[in-house]
Amino acid sequence: MSLTSETEEHSERADDAKLRLENLDKHFTVNQGILSRILRGESSQYVHAVDDVTVEIAEGEAFGLAGESGCGKTTLGKTAIKLTEPTNGRIVFDGEDVTDLSGDDLKAFRREAQVIHQNPYDSINPRFTVYEWIEEPLIVHGIGTPEEREARVLETLEMAGLEPPEAYAHEYPTELSGGERQRVGIARALVLEPSFLLADEPASMLDVSIRASILDVFERLQTELGLTALYISHDLSLLKHICDRIGIMYLGELVEVGPADEIIDNPQHPYTQALVSSVPRLDPDVDRERIELVGEVPDAVDVPSGCRFHPRCPKLVPPEDVDLEQAVWRAVANLRRDLLEDDLSLTGDETHTPGEIRAEYGVPDELSDPHVEAVLSEALEAFVETEDATLDRLREALESPCERGSIPTYQATDVQRSQCLLHDPDGPYRAG
Ligand SMILES: Nc1ncnc2c1ncn2[C@@H]1O[C@H](COP(=O)(O)OP(=O)(O)OP(=O)(O)O)[C@@H](O)[C@H]1O
What we know:
The chain has helices spanning 3-13, 34-40, 73-80, 103-112, 130-140, 146-159, 165-169, 178-190, 208-225, 236-242, 260-265, 270-277, 326-340, 354-360, 370-386, 392-397, and strands spanning 17-29, 46-58, 62-66, 88-93, 96-97, 113-116, 196-200, 228-232, 245-250, 253-259, 410-411, 417-418. The chain is an alpha/beta fold. Helix 8 (178-190) packs parallel to helix 9. It starts with a helix and ends in a 14-residue tail after the last strand. InterPro entries: AAA+_ATPase, ABC_transp_ATP-bind, ABC_transporter-like_ATP-bd, ABC_transporter-like_CS, Oligopep_ABC_C, P-loop_NTPase.
């Protein structure tokens, strides 16, 4: 299914959506000195923290966001509930466009959408007692008499599992353990009776022994209060445990979305497959082959063309006229990438022969495809001789379809969407 029909599908279901993000972008301007920009002749550059994300979260749903560090999870979460302004796109909450809310309307929205922070040590003001800290949002929003507020604070402490609430109310946060502080953070988020909760790495700072009990609180609250929640975490096993659906982010884009169990047990996008395979304890009974992810996540300023995962993808699609085994093609593509970027990764400082360069990249001395062999050996000879080769032929002749244009989102299975050419039902490539 193409992106167009996906949009139609969304608009049909839009009424059930608690939160709907449409083509959401959040870009940050890179903080470069004016002088350096003038000298290097560059215009402003942007960090593509979130790019063209379209997704909806249903009423009562727990949605998880996962992906490597820096891929944009926190920025997407914060933008979704307007803790930071989107660069482009629309945010629809309870059927209403909240993208440009301000003033009292924004304040009312803030009551509905609350956040639980990652760090229970930093996020609480130590000068407040637990009672004062949890009562504050009620005062800010002008809610209730002092007696009504007291009743609400104590009730909320109890909901967050701080019992007896009267005993906790007059403590200072510094006197509490990490798990207790996280429960205080939960109580503060709940006191306004929100309908949407953003929990950013809610358990990552906690001891393993405490994590399970905090996750139980989340699960219980969601069932009892019917909350819709967006959980952000590196930890796929945590998300599998508490979420209905999971979205996987890579370099600002949402590359796969589907039911939590399916994302873990039957990942479709090559990036999700690699991410899942790197977590051995996800499912001890499943003997999963570990997929090694080569290289680092690229810079979010200078994002790769086409599929952003293509420089690292173990399933990179070769050009149609290339006939090489996948592992050999990946090795050739790695060497081509570094030659084109003039950034070969070689051991030692001495000059290398074409044969030595090939060996370092795991490219065989003679490729079985004569066309690729001719293009690559010509480029290597030129590179070694002049160190400044014209590499246009290498660039054009061996360009992968994954490097071109923007990759749409496809329906990869009945329940999973994936932004990968391998899932184009009308395309020549097949997922394997
Ligand atoms: N205020 C900001 N100004 C400039 N760049 C930013 C800002 N906030 C985030 N970024 C950049 O945006 C990208 C996405 O960051 P973000 O924190 O959203 O990722 P993340 O997936 O939540 O990472 P982590 O898991 O490490 O928290 C990164 O490249 C980050 O450096």
